[in-house]
Amino acid sequence: MFKPAQNAPCPTCNSQLPAQDGRCPECQGIAELFVYKSRVAAATLALFGGMFGLHRFYLRQWRAFFYLLLCWTPLPWLAGIIESVIFLATSQKSWNARYNHGIWAGRESGKTLAIFMAIGIGLLIFAISLVSWLPFDMANRFMAAQQQQQQVILAGEHIAEATEQYLKTHQQRPDTLSQLQLNEDIISPAKAFIRFERGNIYLMPAGAKTSEVSMVPVVLKDEVLWDCGTPALPKAMLPRQCR
């Protein structure tokens, strides 16, 4: 915060200014180096630029750099919203005493304060709701992914069983899934994550091509075994034929 230099004269009446204040005791003029800090301006910067600490730069506070360092997290944003409400809730007298050396430059518009207060409270409620909703959303996504994995694994096991039966009956590999006796209720939910090529089954339990599991049938006398290679997925995410 700018202050007049010690023993600096008043630009209006040329009287000596006190070093700790910005107002002349004789004519009540404000020193040239003094910059008035608006409460509404600080609250506005906190509300819309709090993530980057703009309000703290405006108030000439070194802590603004912490906001810049953490701008990639939601913490400065939430702090800015809270601080905007605090700024607007602060009385003009208290604000001037803290940020303006007690200098009074007129009361700032009450309507403006009310508008920014409402916006700040609204955004604060929104932020709290968002933070509360995120864990539930993540939990739902995790449960959906788990359900998808189980559906793909179950469908893979079902196709493998039907393929084994086909091999034993026809002594040759099936070309398509339509040649197998399958339960569509089991296959349909996982069809997008399964490929079938001449008896070979390709599963994507994790929903990604990079995690594909290949199941190649190997006929040994009257028994059908499955060569699953070396899948990168844990055993819990593999059909029982590959465990």
Automatic annotation (TrEMBL):
The keyword Transmembrane applies. It comes from the Bacteria. The keyword Mitochondrion does not apply. Pfam families: TM2. Residues 37-83 form the TM2 domain. Its main location: membrane. It is found in: Membrane. Keywords: Membrane, Transmembrane, Transmembrane helix. One of its GO terms (cellular component) is membrane. The chain crosses the membrane at residues 40-59, 66-89, 113-136. It is a multi-pass membrane protein. This is TM2 domain-containing protein. It comes from Salinimonas marina.
